[in-house]
Amino acid sequence: MKLVLLILGLGLASACFAQDSLIFRKISNEIMLHGTCYDNLRVLTKTVGNRISGSPAAAKAVVWGEKTMKETGADKVYLQPANVPYWYRGKEHLWLKMGRKYHEVEALSLGNSQGTNGKILKAEVIMVHNYDEFKALPESEVKGKIVFFNYRFRQDLILTFEGYGDAVKYRGGSPSVAAEKGAVGVIIRSMSTAVDDFPHTGGMYYKDSTKKIPEMSLGNITADALEKACEKGGVMAKMKSQCHMMPALVPSYNVIGEIKGTETPEKIITIGGHLDSWDVGEGAMDDGAGCVQSMEVLRVFKALGIRPKCTIRAVLFMNEENGQKGGQAYADSAFSKHEKHIIAIETDAGGFSPRGIGMNVNAKQREKIQRYKDLFLPYGVYDFSHEEGGSDIEPIHKKLDIPLAGLMPDCQRYFDYHHTNNDILENVNHRELKLGAVVLAQFIYLVSEQGLD
Amino acid sequence: MKLVLLILGLGLASACFAQDSLIFRKISNEIMLHGTCYDNLRVLTKTVGNRISGSPAAAKAVVWGEKTMKETGADKVYLQPANVPYWYRGKEHLWLKMGRKYHEVEALSLGNSQGTNGKILKAEVIMVHNYDEFKALPESEVKGKIVFFNYRFRQDLILTFEGYGDAVKYRGGSPSVAAEKGAVGVIIRSMSTAVDDFPHTGGMYYKDSTKKIPEMSLGNITADALEKACEKGGVMAKMKSQCHMMPALVPSYNVIGEIKGTETPEKIITIGGHLDSWDVGEGAMDDGAGCVQSMEVLRVFKALGIRPKCTIRAVLFMNEENGQKGGQAYADSAFSKHEKHIIAIETDAGGFSPRGIGMNVNAKQREKIQRYKDLFLPYGVYDFSHEEGGSDIEPIHKKLDIPLAGLMPDCQRYFDYHHTNNDILENVNHRELKLGAVVLAQFIYLVSEQGLD
């Protein structure tokens, strides 16, 4: 009897598998042939462009998001308020004297940083390669200087997000570290894997206890030149910038679209990317890609007439880059409404060919998903072993302790473009972008129909 | 006793595994931090550029190849003669009248094709979507016309090489098919996954029995416009081109470098790409990437002091694109010298992130390689299931029946650039290119030390 049940069970399982495999193929065909995510990304990048939180461009992006979300055929589309900070860049210049004369170089002030109030800050440049070297310097050698933190992105790490995690502390924290010893400014080598000269911006944060000194980043080629010059000594810099944090928060929104579940509509699966970007380039990869992929999931379900058991919610989060106010507002709302989230998924690692889905789930849940691993192989997805979530869904995880997941695309190119003027549509490939949306829709279909537990 | 042996065996196996894993890491670190393949590709693409077989540029590429091969530290570097065809493009124009006036459009004559001898060929354009539609047309509707074969690259196929295999017959064979019904010329939609207007060239071949009519390709955007115009009817075209095959073969060479094996130097592992390219763009991805990766394998062995048991031979094959004369010369030489090749490996699928190594081996050999699968996972390589070889190593396979393998990089972008003016260095990512070389060196190390049988 047990054997019969087992055989019956196996038969059912393989029938389900075949059925799922068929739906997976339909999802893929629909998106690869008729997907709108790439065209949507073109509109976002070319008509809105970059869109830092609180800016007029971000407000325009919300309008675009709401309109585009409606075009997916979502059952319900709405805006969720979140007040966000607004960091303003303004004009900026960096001149380096690495020989006899000053030359202006490409540089970007780091996000959230305080500039020079439009005045010229002139000082000698001293170079350190890491915090240990900096700690070993006596205060007398730092006082009144601009410190060049010349830490290289570790190219030997195959997963570039590990290299980023390793290097990013020099972007976020070095001004406060340097100010403690009396430095007047900081220059950093960008968190960049590229062999070009694009400087990378990104978030930095001051300690309350230290002076807010300016921070600028260099692309790798200029950083190499500065490194050589600093080895000889006598390098001077002139910084001039207007950047500052605006005094008041600005009203803004998450854009949300939903397909109502047929069997358990109270159970929600959230998939999202972030709508804001840094104020350079077009925010194509970071994270226009994630926004259009999240909306593509809704569109493909509607186009194929798939009526999921659970409610599927696509969220374009506001203010991921410098405050996570959108993610916080989402978590607060879910908490106050006693919403039940099965899982929240983020796509914020670029529109590259998918390779895996990382998960912050328990062992049993991971095992369950891994049982379906072979279904994903024809789409190039093989890796379900990593821990992964995302900045926008971290607040709801903290508040409601729900499972998280994150799309893991190929990561080799991400930190070539991340937070630069080179993060433009032309560096996103339409097939890679669509394939990421395919895998997200497949994963969400699977979780909706089979559950996680 | 058996159990003890088994445990001992497992212990040894896992010790070997740990040892291999360490060497894999060393290979990766060396190439990711100090690899020269990207810099070498820069020199090839920017100082030689495209290099069709038989051309002065191809001769220059041979000089570059020999010099660069020597810089790897190879024990022996030599040239292997091969006489190759030389197809000459010259000037070319295509004007389409899709409304009231003729407009010149971007177009490329297909490789090996005969042009219009510099005269204007003017005719009405008729469109078919595939060979079945063409077969159904009466001769009277074809005679004197230019046939537009408007077959779309199947974007629903996730492995783009499958889409290419499906579509490429319209590039290779349509002029002879069309000429049989009296057509005077052929226009094709390029074998292109791209959302741009770059036309793709590539090899075509005439049947001996039919007239040699000219063939030109269009990028997807112009092909879309022509499709719309043809649906309305009354489209005219004027072709003018000088392309032709030169009457005589031209002396040329494969470039070969070797590291002599320490234990079984008579056993050879060949790794190669092709040095020739089509006469557009820079031949960066097809197949400058494969050439510099093959040389990187020799360099990393030398740099790390790895002394392989077997002889490792890197080959830059000449004339892959339109004749395989280099591959043939290599096979003939190996045959006449009674060489023993363990395996021949080709890298000619672009310098993108590696995902697998396809193999044309027997079941037992595949099983042996798959036992080492986990060693490759940290480098993003998980797929050893496909049958794969390469055009340059096909002749030696036919002649000596040896195992073959081919690097399988991510294939989503390949047919955006393949055979176009957009196949330039800027579309090859340095980390992806290096990672491909890492995996090739690891695979070759494994086969050299563990054998295939």
Structural account:
- The structure is a homodimer of 453-residue chains.
- By secondary structure, chain A is of the alpha/beta class.
- Chain A folds into two domains: 31-86 and 248-450, Aminopeptidase (3-Layer(aba) Sandwich); 88-245, Glucose Oxidase, domain 1, CATH 3.50.30.
- Chain A has helices at residues 2-34, 37-48, 56-71, 131-136, 139-142, 160-167, 169-172, 174-179, 220-232, 284-304, 325-336, 363-370, 373-376, 394-400, 414-417, 430-450, and strands at 76-84, 87-88, 92-97, 102-105, 107-109, 121-128, 146-149, 185-189, 215-218, 236-241, 244-245, 250-259, 264-274, 310-317, 340-346, 354-360, 404-409.
- An eight-stranded mixed beta sheet of chain A has the order 4-3-10-6-7-8-9-5. Chain A has a seven-stranded mixed beta sheet with strand order 1-12-14-13-15-17-16, sandwiched between helices.
- In chain A, strand 13 (264-274), helix 10 (284-304) and strand 14 (310-317) form a beta-alpha-beta unit.
- In chain A, helix 11 packs parallel to helix 14.
- The longest helix of chain A is centred in the N-terminal third of the chain and has 33 residues, at 2-34.
- The radius of gyration of chain A is 24 Å and the shape is elongated.
- The model of chain A has no long low-confidence stretch (mean pLDDT 96).
- The A-B interface holds A 28-29, 32-33, 38, 155-156, 158, 160, 193, 195, 353, 355, 378-380, 382-383, 410, 412-413, 416, 429-432, 435 and B 28-29, 32-33, 38, 155-156, 158, 160, 193, 195, 353, 355, 378-380, 382-383, 410, 412-413, 416, 429-432, 435.
